[in-house]
Amino acid sequence: EGPTWCAEEHERDRWCRLLRWYGVDADPTDLLLPPPDTASPAPGAVLLHPGAGAPARRWPVERYAAVATALRARGLRVVVTGGADEGDPVARLAERARLPDTDVFGGGPPFDRLSALVAGARAVVSGDTGIAHLAVAHAVPTVTLFGPVPPRRWGPPAHPRHIALWYGPEGDPHGRRPDPALLRITPDDVLDALGRLPAARRPGEEGAP
Question: Architecture of 43-196 per CATH?
Answer without folding.
Answer: 3-Layer(aba) Sandwich (3.40)
